[in-house]
Amino acid sequence: MNIHEYQAKSMFREYGIKVQEGVHCTSVEEALSAYDSLGSSVVAVKSQIHAGGRGKGTLFDPDSGEEIMQGGVKIAFSRDDVEKYATGISGNLLVTKQTGPEGKIVSNMYVESGCSIAHEYYLAVLVDRDSKSVLVMASTEGGMDIEEVAERTPEAIHKIWADPATGISEEDASGLASSLGLSGSSADEMAGMLASLYELFMERDCSMIEINPLVRTEEGGMVALDAKVSFDENADFRHPWRDELRDLSEEEEVEIRANELGLSYVKLDGNIGCLVNGAGLAMASMDVIKLYGGEPANFLDIGGGATKESITAAFEIILEDSSVKGILVNIFGGIIRCDMVARSVIEASEEIGLNVPLVVRFSGTNHAEGKSVLDESGMAVHTTSTLSEGARKIVELIGGGI
Amino acid sequence: MSIWINDDSKVLIQGITGRQGTFHGIRMSRYKTKIVGGVTPGKGGQTVDLDGLQAPVFDTMSEAISETGAEVSVIYVPAKFAAGAIVDAAESFQAAGGGLVVCITEGIPTLDMVKAVAIVDSCPDVRLIGPNCPGIISPGEDGGCKVGIMPAFIHEKGRIGIVSKSGTLTYEAVAQTMSVGEGQTTCVGIGGDPVNGTGFIDCLSAFEDDPETEAVVMIGEIGGSAEEEAAEWVAANMTKPVVGFVAGSTAPPGKRMGHAGAIISGGKGTAAEKFAAFEEAGIYVARDPSEIGKVLVRALVDAGLREP
Asked: Is A293's Cβ below 8 Å from some Cβ in B?
């Protein structure tokens, strides 16, 4: 789960991590009164969307598609500037490298006091899969795309690991500060910030905190100019406060609905809908469809606890996608019985009025019973016993493939 | 032979009185797995009927181990309490001389696992498999040792080792070996979480040392770099043939594909990179999981282990 910059910064303040004064706004009027209240001659007017690359993004009129403004993060030197930029941002479509061409409508802005920047750094806290511990990664090349830095100058990236029992050691924290070339009060502030970030990361069950840029001001202070925080959803049960921070408009409505039903769904660009049990098998089903010349329309794992209801809902979700021209059901029965799936498939098809070709592959628990249930139903369904055959068949039926 | 478990392994079920624990306990017991009891804090002294087998319930793992002499434990407790159950099992086994902990539970907070794995790693005689996995099974002549949730009937004793990040895709791999007349020594599901216990290399190394395993099928998926590291290990150390598949060639970047760890982030962890690493390491690659059987036969023939 991701949150907005303004929400992340308010969390930073709680943990004593230095940020500039700022106000969350949802209209041009609010942006102007934020400017008045901040009393700073220079402010940043920042689009609040979950995707990165906002600064280099482009704003478009959502109705006409006309380009309105370059840059979703603007530095304003006057009240007029604030009005101009907030008007350009508010309610318009921001397209960045990470949003894809469809972009995101900006409904939230953040107006923040400017600060004098001496140098920009990059800082991130994340879970390192290799060492199975929390990793802090920092670089002197702030403001840049970290992947690009990793590619071009990997030596500019410095790393320290937290001990799962004791956290980040003081030596490691000061070591990291000095490898970034920081000294005196800046180095002390940096070490203090690392301790606070780690505390936040652990207490709030984060999966990543990224600050890009983290700046050293002319006065030597260390300030988080940006803040990206995401949370581990497996820990939602102990953080009820997350509900309030969640911006549902940033998430795919259908993915949320699927989730609530215990399904895991991701929409893709193809035309063959997939309904599979197990995440690995669901991915493999997509891969094999592609291998035989088709294009998968979605990833869908019905999970180990699927019921008639969730399978019917899964069918509905697949068929809501108007590009779906055929469906492949791929079940390797373990706890789930193929005959139960077969009955659910029949029921769902009758309920929804299935009008695209359907191929069902059953293997494992009660696969033969599942096949007879389908055969006896009189439904127009093709059954196969391997994934390969199933994928080839559905690709052939929709008239594509090799 | 097999790795880590065998027909004689004594198994405890953590969460035995829960719905999942009892349901799977019955199925494990039917497969002739030696279930010696279970643990549910606060329910010590009760028994659970596992299809005729009266399994004693203990309050703690240390009590259960000292009373039963168990060396394997399987965890079916809810995600909230699972990391605590792992730690209890690891510390108790270490104190008793060692053991294997298999955690089936899905959805454990990642930072709970970071802390739990650090404790498991400080117990040199304890191995953790999972979490978020189907478990481990070693088919025997009549039944066998099943520690997890996999459908037992698809397996048969044989000479192939299987290791996989995914549940149902492991079953697919098992069915593929069966389709070419090969059975399995041991099948290990290591799980799809970003932070877990046993990895590919642990399994490959155990299969390499197991005299009965003749070849290994390894199933990876997008995310992280465990497959690449395993490939390097295979190139440097493995004398037995390895067949590999990676799920997620068509997965879009930045999207979590069901498993918490299955995500391409920052352009890293793609299936293309993993397949390339497999090929470079001399691993026999199947691009379609329905061809794992066929590729396995080729690998066995090339190694001189089967007639062409």
From this structure: no
- Average pLDDT in chain B: 96
> Do residues B220 and B267 both lie within one domain?
yes
Asked if B228 and B274 count as a contact pair (C-beta separation under 8 A), the reply is yes
Q: Which of A101-110, A248-257, A356-365 has the lowest mean pLDDT?
A: A248-257
Q: Which of B118, B165, B224 sits opposite A129 (nearest CB)?
A: B224
| Residue B196 domain boundaries | 156-302
| Separation CA A192–CA A264 (nearest Å) | 40
What letter represents residue B169's amino acid? L
Decide if A335 touches B, using CB distance below 8 A: yes
Judge whether B179 lies within some domain: yes
Smallest CA–CA distance from A299 into chain B, residue: B257
Which residues of A are less than 8 Å from B254 in CB distance? 98
Please give the tally of structural domains in chain B.
2
- At residue A362, what is the residue type? F
Q: Decide which of 3.30.470.20, 3.30.1540.20, 3.40.190.10, 3.40.50.300 is the CATH code for A117-242.
A: 3.30.470.20
CATH placement of domain A253-397 = 3.40.50.261
| B180 shares a domain with B252 | yes
Q: What is the pLDDT of residues B107-153, one digit of tens each?
A: 999 999 999 999 999 999 999 999 999 999 999 999 999 999 999 99
Pairing of strands A73-76, A43-48: antiparallel
Strand pairing of A358-364 and A382-384? parallel
- Give domain limits for chain A: 21-113, 117-242, 253-397
The yes/no answer to whether this complex scores an ipTM above 0.85 is: yes
Which residue carries 């303004």 as its tokens?
A: A6
Token readout for B276 is 């390339």
The tokens for A259 are 């989730």
Q: Do B257 and A284 touch (CB under 8 A)?
A: no
Pairing of strands B215-221, B184-189: unpaired
- B47 DSSP 8-state letter: E
**Around Cβ A353, how many Cβ atoms within 10 Å?**
7
Please give the structure tokens belonging to residue B291.
């061809």
Please write down the HEC assignment for all residues of A197-244: HHHHHHHCCEEEEEEEEEEEECCCCEEECCCEEEECHHHHHHCCCHHH
Architecture of domain A21-113: 2-Layer Sandwich (3.30)
